[in-house]
Amino acid sequence: MSRLFSTFSRSVAKWSGRPITFAAALALVVLWAVTGPFFGFSETWQLVINTATTIVTFLMVFVLQNTQNRDGEALHAKLDELLLTSNAENRFIEAERLTDEDIRKLRRLVEKEMAAEEDGGEI
Q: What is the DSSP string of 13-69?
C-alpha cells in the first residue's frame, strides 16, 4: 500500500506542477465565474467552488507532503553518503534528526570554522 501511495504521490506532484494543470484549473475557475449570472450567484453556486477547492486542497496537502518527505529523506541519505566517503566530519551525519538546539550548536560551530578559515587561522 505504501509503495502504491508513493507512486501515486509522485505522479500527482509531477502533474500538479505542470503549466497545463494550472491552465486547466484556471479554466475551471473562469468557467465557474462565467456561470455565476446564470445561477443568480446563488449560495449553491458559491458552494460548488468552495467545496471543490477545499477537497482538492485537503487531499493535495497529504500527497505533496508525502512527496516532500521522501525527497528530503533521499537528499539526506545522499548527503550522509558524501560525508561518509569524504574527509568531512561524521558529526554531521543525520544532523536532521538532532534537536533544534543541537542543530543551532552545530551551525554556530560551522560559522566559527568558516570565520577562522577566512582569517587564515585555526579555531
A: HHHHTSHHHHHHHHHHHHHHHHTTGGGTT-HHHHHHHHHHHHHHHHHHHHHHHHHHH
Average pLDDT, the chain: 89
* DSSP state at residue 123: -
Who contacts 89 (Cβ-Cβ below 8 Å, separation ≥6)?
83
Q: Where do the domains of the chain lie? A: 2-86, 89-123
Query: What percentage of the chain reaches a pLDDT higher than 90?
Result: 43
Return the closest-CA partner of residue 71 out of 4, 10, 16, 21. 10
pTM of the model: 0.65
